[in-house]
């Protein structure tokens, strides 16, 4: 399958390259880029709003997939209104790679492009060759068509691939010059050629040998041109939590971070985790690269980021980043939505997330702790998740959480061997700072 992908991709590269090559690149200037990740978009043809899909949502990991279409519409409406210089989506565009979901989302992104905002996408681990692609209709789950790498590129050709200034022959990676001072590297880190019916999708990310060669060549040209590289990928570059490294952090991430730093890169965007989190990678020699793991757009408070990059034309830049929630209620009012849930969608979403993100293992909590302590444990976990996923679990917030009456149930759960208690302990022990804003001065 890997050889077939490479052969088929070669036929598409020439036309894509011609679209990017020869275009007039704007001069170095400040650029503002919108960034989001992990939409996990579910097309209308995939689910019917029935009990089966409702149960999938309620027993899942807190993603509000039953409302992802209006959440996405609200977000894209904000992007069109704000008119950033570009929109980056760092993978997991679809729920489980359903072709119908990709087709519907691509059509919406094409409208953003038509409105004057360039869109750049890359695949996440759920997006390509995903044998878990299913429909949830009439109370039954059934297999449905997924997309191949070639189909992914064709569907999203207007979202980066056709405009690329350089394409990697070994993967769906590409580079586009936002202007002469900022080069964007969209890195495909998905080993989708390994997927098969018994192994529907990989979680971890890897970079192909050919991609390393292509990337370093392009980074060298970027440095020689006096531009700064901006890296985007799905899996994480830095360690965001000691509990979430294997399967979350890119394989050979240190090599990638060092390569980026060697060519003047200071900032990378990733996703995959779902909480909003910012982490620093630092080499033994003191070089630094910040990794912003964007919170999932499908998870309350539906965060997206805005970064302004001000290049000096000599390989240095200043970066200012801020994450903000999507105002679904404002979108609903502007578009005449009548569902009462939209009257205060943020409050509704927060409540649902606190409940749904604690539903896994609920029976085991009761078995280990009894009804009363299990309820307290879930309340503490729900509050921790609300803070953590919003990028707001500061040291002060963690201290308040552990001082609350419900936290006693967490301490008891630790003695009873409840693994989730260890997860909560990790969150509060690692709590620090603000994960919704970042300022980076030019590298020395």
TrEMBL record:
Going by the UniProt record, its keywords in alphabetical order are: Hydrolase, Iron, Metal-binding, Signal
Domain of life, per UniProt, equals: Bacteria
Q: Where is the signal peptide?
A: 1-19
Q: Tell me, what is one Gene Ontology molecular-function annotation carried by this entry? A: hydrolase activity
Quote the Pfam families the UniProt record gives: CNP_C_terminal, Metallophos
Cyclic nucleotide phosphodiesterase C-terminal domain spans which residues? 327-433
Residues forming the Calcineurin-like phosphoesterase domain are: 32-275
Cite the InterPro entries for this sequence: Calcineurin-like_PHP, CNP_C, CNP_phosphodiesterase-III, Metallo-depent_PP-like, Pesteras_lmo2642
The text of the family note is: Belongs to the cyclic nucleotide phosphodiesterase class-III family.
Q: What is the protein name given in its UniProt record?
A: Metallophosphoesterase
């Amino acid at each position: 399958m890997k050889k077939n992908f490479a052969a088929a991709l070669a036929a598409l590269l020439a036309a894509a390259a011609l679209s990017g090559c020869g275009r007039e690149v704007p001069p170095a200037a400040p650029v503002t880029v919108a960034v989001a990740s992990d939409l996990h978009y579910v097309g209308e043809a995939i689910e019917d709003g029935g009990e089966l899909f409702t149960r999938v949502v309620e027993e899942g990991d807190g993603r509000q997939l039953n409302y992802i279409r209006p959440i996405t519409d609200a977000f894209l409406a904000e992007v069109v209104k704000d008119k950033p210089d570009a929109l980056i989506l760092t993978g997991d565009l679809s729920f489980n790679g359903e072709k119908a979901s990709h087709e519907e989302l691509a059509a919406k992104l094409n409208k953003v492009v038509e409105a004057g905002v360039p869109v750049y996408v890359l695949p996440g681990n759920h997006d390509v060759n995903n044998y878990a692609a299913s429909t949830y209709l009439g109370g039954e789950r059934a297999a449905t068509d997924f997309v191949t790498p070639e189909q992914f590129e064709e569907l999203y050709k207007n979202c980066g691939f056709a405009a690329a200034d350089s394409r990697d022959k070994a993967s769906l990676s590409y580079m586009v010059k936002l202007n002469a001072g900022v080069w964007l590297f969209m890195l495909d880190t998905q080993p989708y050629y390994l997927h098969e019916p018994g192994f529907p999708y990989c979680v971890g990310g890897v970079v192909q040998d050919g991609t390393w060669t292509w990337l370093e060549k392009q980074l060298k040209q970027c440095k020689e041109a006096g531009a700064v590289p901006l890296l985007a990928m799905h899996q994480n570059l830095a360690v965001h939590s000691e509990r979430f490294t294997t399967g979350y952090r890119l394989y050979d991430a240190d090599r990638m971070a060092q390569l980026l730093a060697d060519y003047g890169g200071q900032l990378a965007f990733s996703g995959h985790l779902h909480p909003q989190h910012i982490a620093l990678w630092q080499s033994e020699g003191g070089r630094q690269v910040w990794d912003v793991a964007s919170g999932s757009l499908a998870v309350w408070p539906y965060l997206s980021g805005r970064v302004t990059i001000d290049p000096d034309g000599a390989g240095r830049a200043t970066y200012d980043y801020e994450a903000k929630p999507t105002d679904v209620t404002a979108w609903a009012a502007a578009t005449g939505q009548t569902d009462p849930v939209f009257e205060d969608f943020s409050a509704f979403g927060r409540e649902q997330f606190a409940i749904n993100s604690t539903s896994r293992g609920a029976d085991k909590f009761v078995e280990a702790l009894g009804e009363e302590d299990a309820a307290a444990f879930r309340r503490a976990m729900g509050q921790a998740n609300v803070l953590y996923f919003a990028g707001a679990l500061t040291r002060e917030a963690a201290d308040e959480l552990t001082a609350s009456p419900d936290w006693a149930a967490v301490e008891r759960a630790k003695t009873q061997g409840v693994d989730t208690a260890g997860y909560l302990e990790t969150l509060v022990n690692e709590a620090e700072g603000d994960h919704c804003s970042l300022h980076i001065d030019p590298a020395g």
